[in-house]
Every structure is written in C-alpha cells, then in structure tokens.
Design a protein that fits this description.
With 603 residues, this protein is α+β, with helices and mostly antiparallel strands. Among the domains are: 57 residues, no CATH class; 133 residues, no CATH class. The protein has 23 helices and eleven strands. Pfam families: Dimer_Tnp_hAT, zf-BED.
Length: 603
C-alpha cells in the first residue's frame, strides 16, 4: 500500500472528497488524489514548501551518511560482494501525487554494473569524456599536459571517479584521429560548394623562429544562410617567401582539399592593409599630431613604470591608461580616448586635451570602419564602397578649431582619395555592393563604375536565368551630401531620399519587369545591423535567379583579418607550456578549433 503523502500535514480530510487547508482554511476538492492540494501549496503557500525543503536538506547534511554499502548474493555457497558507491544513488524529486515531496531511488545492481563498465576503456562514458577533453584542449588552446595537472586530476576524480585519465600522449593520438575523421567530413562539405573565398597570411613564431603560411576558406552555407569559415591548412615555410613558393603552397592546398580553382572567387591577402596605412600616413604627415601622440605615449609609459604614480592614479579612478601598440593603429585611438577620459586625473597636461578631443572626432569614424569591415560572420566585401562613402561624409562635415586637427583632416581625406578612389571600379566589390539589399546602388558616386558593375551582374544573371536580352537603363541616384556617434547616419539620409525618388518613379508595369529590373527599382531594404544573407532568405521567393548569385559573391571577405585572427590564436596555442609543438600538431589543433561543434559529436 502506498505511503501517505506528506502534503496531508497541511490539510484536514473532509467528507465528499474535500480537504481544508490548515494554514488558510480554504476548502479544496481532492477528487481522489493530491494534485489540487499540491497546486495550492505551490501557488499560495510557497514559502512553507521552501522552508520544508530547507529543513530536509539541513537534516540530511547533519546526519552521517555511509559512503557506500554492500549487497551480497549467494551463488554455489560462495559470497559475491558488489560495492556500489554513493555516486550511483540518485535523488529524484517526486511528481506523483501519492509519493512524498522528495524521495530517494536506488539503481538496481544490474544497472549500476552497466554504468561502471561504461566508464572503462572503450566504454561509452569513457569515450564521451575523452572526446570532451579533446574538445577542451582544441577549443580553449590548452596544452596536452593539462590532463596531468594535479588540479585537473582532482576535478575529474570528484566529478567522474570511475573515469581513468589517459596520458597526454594518448590525447595527442586522439586529436590526430579526430582531425583525420573531421577533415574527411569537411572535404565532403566543400565538394558540394560552387564558390568560396580564401584568405592567407604569413606569421613568424618567435619561440622557435618558424614562419607559417595559413589558409582560411570562407563560404556561404545556403542551408542556414550563414557565412562560415574554416582554417584549412597551416604550412611551415622552410624557404624564402617568394611568390613562386607561396603559389606552390596554394597548389598543395587545392590538391589536398579537393578545391577547384574555378570555384575560388577571390584570394585575400594582407597586401599592406590600405586602411591602416592611410591612417598611419595621415598621422605621420601631421607633424604636430605626431609629436602630441609621442608625448601622450611618454606619459602613459611613465605611469606604467612608476609604482607611486600608478598608486595615485588608482586612488582617483578605477581605469588605467592604455599604451599604444605599433602594429595596431586602433590602439592609438584607444590610448588617446582613455587619456582624454582621465584628463581630470592628469591635470598637469590639461591644456592639450582640447586638441585630443578634436583628434578623436576625426579618428572615431576610422575606428568604427575597421570594426565593421573586420567581421567574419557576415559578408563584408559589399560594405567597402558604402563605408568609404560614409567615411568621406563624416570626415568632411567635421569643422576643426585647431590647426593640428585641420591638418589631420586634410591628410585623412587625401589618403582616402589616394587609396580608395578606385574601389567602385573593382568588379567584385561593386557587384557585392549591388547584391547587398541594404545598399543596392545607393553609395555609387561614379556613374561609370556603377554601369560597369550592373553590366557584370546582368551577365551573371543571364547565365542563370537563360535570358538573352536585358534592355534596361538603370541610373544611379544622385544625392546631396549634407550627441552620439553614428557611422551610418549619412547612409540613412541617402536612403530616405532614395525612397522618395522611388515612390515618384513607381509605375504599374513593375510586375512585368524581369526580377533584376525589379530589384534595381526597389529602394534598399533592411537595417544596417541586419545580415544581408538573412534578408536574401526572404527575397529568394521573389528573386529566385538572383538569389543563386549570393553564394558566389557573399563568400568574399573585405580584409585579411580572419587570417590574422588565425595567427593570434596560434600565438595563444604556442606558449611556454607548448613551445615544442610540432607544425603538424599545430595544424591539427587550429583546424579542430575552427570547425563547428556538430563535427565533435558532443550532442
């Protein structure tokens, strides 16, 4: 007979299947079970229930619990002992109306034995834990010797006492096996693609003075409309970094990963980083600014090296000064920005802070652009032309009061004109911009470049839609350029003007035009923060042929930053604890770090 529920401690049983609450005297129907009573306690007297649970926990923790117990089974006169640890006993909250509020259930001996066996080498639990540790080593850049650390062993002993920890060498072999398996799966995935972009970069590892060449592939996964990237290969460079030698490595990449050269849309390399050089040259050409930045650097260095000065600064603010890093122009911006924020604490140079404020206003758009263009989760190639346009607008409308700022403004505009004036004539960039629904034709300032891009897009469209003639005249819209910083505020003004013009040109014949004509006659759609791949997921039904071009053009990235990030990870992986890591193992770890979790089979 089932035991009486502890809920009846709070109720008096009445006639006709009813019960009275001892706390609030409310009459409830029971209908032969305690469901209504339980709901009443949970909703009305929740504090009482929580207090009861607290008492149960307190009493259970104060009692001495036998860590294990033994059961005996007699077989042929022999006594067989089976030891079951307390970790094999599970406490399960009761949901049944006839059960107690909480009860302890004990696993059967047969079930316990199966669980013990699963933790042995080759068992399901053992394989699952080993695979997860391999995942941790690859994803978190941990050394293989981590598994031999005292603290990690203690943690595993507590959480999985039945698991026998393999050695570091065993995990190296496991990583190699995982790499071999996952690389085959990735090759199958890549064979289905019709277009991909490759970024590459060269990096020198300082501990062993070895040079590496890394290749990352970028592609559009049309199943979920996402831009994805995988580090395919990191080659050790044993010869001079000539064009022929690097081309040979690219050939090896295509051979090893079954990549078709016809499907490679672009190969993006560091090539001098135009944006960075434009900023650096602008600063170098503004002599007063160069001197001011050097003074700020000296002050920051003094604070970094003076314990007394640092202590005094800490008493005034919780923020620290930021030092410039020569290889990252953005660090100059962040150094000046933090310096300006702490001007009240650095009063002896307060007269220079007005200059810095104006300089920051000029550098802020550049900092925002470098962030926008460095993404690898969304298409960036189509953002370059719009970003150059809004950059010129933002810089042009700033009115400096000091000559140092005025000179910087002139130099920035001159460098941008020198380096980016022909960006719209790059067919790949231009077509990517046209295919981005957020921009369309909006940011083309050069009518000839726009016409060239539209012709290129139409040719692609013809191949897909089998249309022989597309006789349309699409003209770019001319636009007049006229708190909190918003890089895209000029874009929104252009967009508003374009919407007004589109309404004026709207005709009843729109529905009869080919989809490419409809696309160009429609104003840009979507917000700046939207992923254009997601917008095209909605547009695919009305523009099915154009949607087929998305995977070819949106796989192109605007910069080589993804490859540079790759070697930032390499610098983390190769550290004092892993300074003898072989190039082959490094390649395997970087590859496994980049692949999606679904390839790990962790569930």
């Amino acid at each position: 007979m089932p035991s009486k529920s502890e809920l009846w401690r709070y109720f008096d049983k009445l006639k006709d299947g009813k019960a009275s609450c001892r706390i609030c005297k409310k009459i409830l129907k029971t209908c032969g079970n305690t469901s209504n009573l339980r709901c009443h306690i949970n909703s009305v007297h929740k504090m009482v229930l929580e207090d009861e649970i607290r008492k149960i926990k307190t009493s259970s923790s104060s009692e001495e619990v036998e860590p294990s117990f033994k059961k005996q089974k007699i077989e042929g006169g022999d006594k067989v002992e089976v030891k079951i640890t307390d970790s094999e006993i599970t406490q399960i909250p009761s949901c049944s109306s006839s059960d107690n509020l909480y009860q302890t259930k004990q696993l059967t001996i047969d079930t316990s034995m199966k669980r013990i066996v699963s933790y042995g080498e080759g068992g399901s639990k053992h394989s699952q834990i080993t695979n997860t540790i391999c995942y941790m080593i690859a994803k978190d850049c941990q050394p293989f010797t981590m598994v031999e650390n005292k603290g990690f062993k203690k943690l595993m002993k507590l959480t999985s006492p039945l698991y026998k920890m393999p050695t570091a060498n065993t995990f190296k072999k496991q990583i190699e096996q995982k790499y071999n398996f996952v690389s085959v799966e990735v090759k199958k995935k890549l064979e289905l693609l019709k277009a991909y972009c490759i970024t590459s970069d060269i990096w020198t590892e300082t501990m062993q003075t070895l040079s590496y060449l890394g290749f990352t592939i970028h592609y559009v996964d049309m199943e979920d409309h996402e831009l994805k990237s995988i580090m395919l290969e990191v080659y050790e460079l044993n010869e001079r970094h000539t064009a022929e030698y690097i081309a040979e490595k690219l050939e090896n990449l295509c051979t090893e990963w079954n990549l078709k050269k016809d499907y490679i849309t672009t190969i993006v390399t560091d090539g001098g980083s135009n944006m960075v050089k434009a900023i650096e040259r602008s600063i170098q050409n503004t002599q007063d600014l160069k001197e001011l930045i050097n003074k700020v650097k000296q002050i920051v260095t003094w604070f970094k090296h003076s314990v007394r000065a640092s202590d005094e600064l800490r008493t005034l603010t919780s923020y620290k000064l930021i030092q410039e890093v020569s290889t990252r122009w953005n660090s100059t911006y962040y150094m000046l920005k933090r310096f300006l924020n702490l001007r009240g604490s650095i009063s002896n140079i307060i007269n220079k802070c007005d200059y810095i404020g104006e300089i920051l206003n000029l550098l802020r758009p550049l900092e925002a652009i470098t962030k926008e263009i460095s993404g690898d989760k969304y298409p960036t190639c189509g953002m370059i032309i719009p970003l150059i346009n809004v950059l010129n607008m933002q810089i042009s409308k700033i009115k400096p009061q000091y000559s140092i700022s005025e000179n910087l403004k002139k130099n920035i505009l001159a460098e941008c004109q020198k380096r980016f004036s022909n960006a719209a004539h790059n067919t790949t960039m231009a077509v990517c911009t046209l295919l981005d629904p957020r921009f369309n034709k909006l940011h083309f300032q050069d009518a000839q470049a726009l016409a060239k891009a539209i012709i290129a897009l139409k040719e692609e469209y013809k191949l897909i839609s089998n249309i022989v003639n597309l006789d349309e005249s699409d003209e770019s819209s001319d636009s007049d350029h006229t708190s909190e910083f918003n890089l895209w505020q000029d874009h929104h003004k252009l967009l508003k003007e374009d919407w007004i013009k589109s309404k004026q040109k709207k005709s009843d014949a729109d529905g009869k035009l080919p989809e490419i004509s409809m696309y160009f006659q429609t104003p840009p759609t979507g917000r700046i923060g939207d992923n254009p791949l997601h917008i095209w997921k909605e547009l695919a039904s009305s523009h099915p042929n154009m949607a087929q071009l998305i995977s070819k053009y949106f796989c192109n990235v605007g910069t080589s930053v993804p490859s540079e990030r790759l070697f930032s990870k390499t610098g983390i992986i190769i550290n004092q604890q892993r300074n003898r890591l072989k190039p082959k193992t490094l390649n395997q770890l970087l590859f496994l770090q980049c692949v999606e979790d679904k390839y790990w089979g962790l569930g």
